[in-house]
């Protein structure tokens, strides 16, 4: 007997400030003006997506003492944008990245509980950490937290916010016998938390929200991050969108759930995925090549190489050969606040590998960056892309995908119009929303209806 088809989960990442976006395209628009967010969100909702996702940047990134080119127009505040989008959407989930290293549990819990009320139960929190002292300089605790303690704080941070969300559970309304006025039980909202990182008490002033608690996402790929997700998250973002890598990640994380008393369906795994669509597979391949060249200008190629070399390479020709000098492996890095710095753990080994690739393929610096950078996850006609996405999900490489188009804000339109209907025809994606909350979209139980899945503080 064949197992039933899994239903695919789809979400959309507003591309804004990242290396995916092609700002040189005439269709590219602002990632600050609210109209861009409205267009993107309403497209995702029209396609019946589960949620929209906004990343967060707490400081403008720098390289060689200058603001990185993608950051020059700034980054809007996550909560402000999501709250505004709640007013122009009816069903779409609203997911935001909020850092647990530079915030306080009471403030974050209050903001997410408020967003959940404003949206009718559609909020979600992507819990992230930061060891980056450069970013921390913006905060009063700038860079104070050692890297090995960041997950300890994050676990206690999440546990504390859950205590705040749950502090309104079981509240009662009682009538004063003398006046007839209805009053809330004084215990509603009361909390006390004493731990390594937080020692707080009082009364939480936002009543229990439609979802009970916002949906919790986590994005760490380290062993600590995977354990954190298995113990306490409702979904985990994955960077493994290829079939075999995705299956290995999926199996590893799902197998960690049992030790926390959780079932496989209580944690969704959702990789980020870019795409290039054409009327034919050949047309899509040509578009994908063109997009990759647009994403990597000559200046961008040099900046990318500087991540690894940790040197000023502005005198090098991006259409010429790689530098013959070795990377500088000192602790003082040329790039500040960029995730790519942490991706290359062994710069000398990376440089050797890249020189060999460039020599074997006669690649210039720009050619190398184009060919070793992230390629589109799904390339092909709508039929090919729909078929591939379904195959990956049914093969347990993921539970769905968070789509990252290369154009802001209209890049999602073609996927919504041409791929989603094919998935719906296959019976693996909804034709309408079945409930009002994000938990309904994701198939997750309300916290009051399921056993507690808490992280011990």
Automatic annotation (TrEMBL):
InterPro entries membership: Diverse_substr_monoxygenases (IPR051260), Luciferase-like_dom (IPR011251), Luciferase-like_sf (IPR036661), NTA_MOA (IPR016215)
EC class of the enzyme, as a word: oxidoreductase
UniProt keyword list: Flavoprotein, FMN, Monooxygenase, Oxidoreductase
Name listed for the protein in its UniProt record: NtaA/DmoA family FMN-dependent monooxygenase
One MF annotation (Gene Ontology) recorded for this entry: monooxygenase activity
Family indicated by similarity: Belongs to the NtaA/SnaA/DszA monooxygenase family.
UniProt-listed Enzyme Commission number(s): 1.14.-.-
Luciferase-like domain location: 23-395
Classification via CDD domains: Nitrilotriacetate_monoxgenase
């Amino acid at each position: 007997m064949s197992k039933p088809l899994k239903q695919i989960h789809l979400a959309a990442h507003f591309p804004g400030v990242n290396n995916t976006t092609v700002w040189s395209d005439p269709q590219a628009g602002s990632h600050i003006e609210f109209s861009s967010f409205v267009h993107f969100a309403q497209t995702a909702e029209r396609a019946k997506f589960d949620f929209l996702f906004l990343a967060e940047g707490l400081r403008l990134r720098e390289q060689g003492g200058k603001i990185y080119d993608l950051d020059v127009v700034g980054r809007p505040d996550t909560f402000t944008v999501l709250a505004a989008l709640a007013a122009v959407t009816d069903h779409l989930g609203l997911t935001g990245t909020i850092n647990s290293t530079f915030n306080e549990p009471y403030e974050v819990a209050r903001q997410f509980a408020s967003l959940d009320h404003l949206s009718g139960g559609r909020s979600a929190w992507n819990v992230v950490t930061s060891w980056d002292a450069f970013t921390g300089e913006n905060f009063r605790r700038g860079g104070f937290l050692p890297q090995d303690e960041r997950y300890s704080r994050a676990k206690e941070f999440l546990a504390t916010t859950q205590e705040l969300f749950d502090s309104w559970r079981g509240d009662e309304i009682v009538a004063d016998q003398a006046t007839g006025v209805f009053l809330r039980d004084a215990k509603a909202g009361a909390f006390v938390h004493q731990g390594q990182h937080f020692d707080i008490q009082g009364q939480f002033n936002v009543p229990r929200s439609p979802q009970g608690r916002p949906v919790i996402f986590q994005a760490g790929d380290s062993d600590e991050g995977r354990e954190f997700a298995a113990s306490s998250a409702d979904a985990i973002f994955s960077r493994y969108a290829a079939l075999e890598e995705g299956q290995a990640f999926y199996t590893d994380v799902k197998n960690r759930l049992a030790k926390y008393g959780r079932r496989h369906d209580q944690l969704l795994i959702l990789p980020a995925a870019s795409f290039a669509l054409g009327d034919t597979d050949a047309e899509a391949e040509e578009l994908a090549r063109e997009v990759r060249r647009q994403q990597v200008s000559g200046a961008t190629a040099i900046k990318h190489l500087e991540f690894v070399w940790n040197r000023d390479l502005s005198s090098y020709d991006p259409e010429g050969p790689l530098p013959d000098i070795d990377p500088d492996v000192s602790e003082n890095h040329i790039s500040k606040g960029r995730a790519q710095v942490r991706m290359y753990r062994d710069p000398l080994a990376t440089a050797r590998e890249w020189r060999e690739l460039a020599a074997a393929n006669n690649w210039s610096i720009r050619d190398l960056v184009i060919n070793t950078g992230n390629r589109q996850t799904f390339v092909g006609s709508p039929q090919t892309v729909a078929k591939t996405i379904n195959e990956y999900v049914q093969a347990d490489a993921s539970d769905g995908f968070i789509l990252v188009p290369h154009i802001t804000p209209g890049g999602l339109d073609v996927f919504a119009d041409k791929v989603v209907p094919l998935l719906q025809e296959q019976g693996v994606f909804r034709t309408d929303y079945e409930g009002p909350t994000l938990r309904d979209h994701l198939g997750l139980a309300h916290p009051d209806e399921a056993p507690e899945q808490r992280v011990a503080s």
